[in-house]
Specification:
Blueprint lengths: L2 E10 L2 H9 L1 H7 L2 E2 L8 E5 L9 E10 L3 E8 L2 E13 L2 E11 L2 H23 L1
Antiparallel strand pairs: 1-7, 2-3, 3-4, 4-5, 5-6, 6-7
Helix pairs in contact: 1-2, 2-3
Length: about 130
């Protein structure tokens, strides 16, 4: 049985600006990690950060879905597990956008909690990118 993480974040921005923060490599690097991401179905990419004693610092992925500016999904493989990350954007009006994250494929609750912690921290960095 695999576990699923779901999180929702609301931002004061436009859906187009939030979409670009999710899909442009330079912007992704400011709030997630350095990468060679391209929002093209089938494109294989890597996120990279400093390795440590438990992890090589590399996440590999492949883009699965690109439906601008509403849905993006990709695989997220690291440390022997492969997940699917899906972002769904919804314009709420009044300059607010909801960003829904669904990450599936966790083998255990510890991994799920680690991802929840990571994405929650990164969401604050994303807010700063959107304010630029």
């Amino acid at each position: 049985m695999s576990l699923k993480l779901t999180l929702d974040f609301q931002y004061t921005t436009t859906i187009e600006k939030l979409w670009s923060a999710l899909t442009e490599s330079g912007k992704l690097a400011k709030w997630v990690m350095s990468n060679d991401f391209k929002a093209e179905v089938g494109y294989r990419f890597q996120f990279r950060t400093e390795p440590n004693e438990w992890w090589d610092g590399i996440i590999t992925g492949e883009v699965l879905t690109v439906e601008a500016p509403n849905e993006l999904s990709y695989t997220w493989a690291s440390a022997g597990e492969q997940h699917t990350v899906t972002w769904t954007l919804k314009d709420l009006g009044d300059g607010k956008v909801n960003l829904h994250l669904e990450q599936t494929g966790f083998a255990n609750a510890q991994g799920l909690e680690g991802a929840k912690y990571g994405w929650s921290g990164w969401s604050g960095k994303l807010e700063k990118v959107l304010a630029e």
